[in-house]
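Hi Q.,

Before the meeting this afternoon, I wanted you to have the fe (ii) ion prediction in hand. No need to reply - just skim if you have a minute. The sequence and ligand are here:
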Amino acid sequence: MTTRATPLIDNDLGNRMIKVDHAGEHGAICIYSGQLFMARVFARDKVDELKEFLSHERRHRAVFQAELRRRGYRRCRSYWLCGLGGLVLGLITGLCGRKAIVATTVAVESVVLRHLAHQLHTLRDIDPLAVAAIATIVEEEQHHHDHSAAQIERDDPWFRALAPVVTAWTEAVIWMGMRS
Ligand SMILES: [Fe+2]
Ligand SMILES: [Fe+2]
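Predicted structure with the ligand bound:
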């Protein structure tokens, strides 16, 4: 009897990635909401930009919410944790002013962009609808990153202090979300 090796395709991978992205977008909404709340007093020149970013993140969450619903999937267990962590991060960095706001955006969006590129690559042959949903947000995430990166030096103390913490937190949330 001959046995043929079947390729290991994880049919659930796209579902889990959409679920994590949905929670991540909720986290982003909470970060920008917290920053916007504080920026009205402590960084008024950032208010319009934060409103613009926030409107993008709301659209991103809606994209993934619709995709999750279509798949009959519930939201990620880390959804509320993402929201709470995002809100705390947003309020604290908003309180610290424009440099902390910009440093946070660069750090978060760097992880997001790396993560999205990985997802698009991994899912390209196995889940075209997930790829289509993810592809609709990349340009705006790139804009958030590039627009903010142009306003801060990589060796700025705010960036050096916040980037490792924000990166570790974001990576940890993604890791947990993919396994829950
Ligand atoms: Fe987003
Ligand atoms: Fe973003």
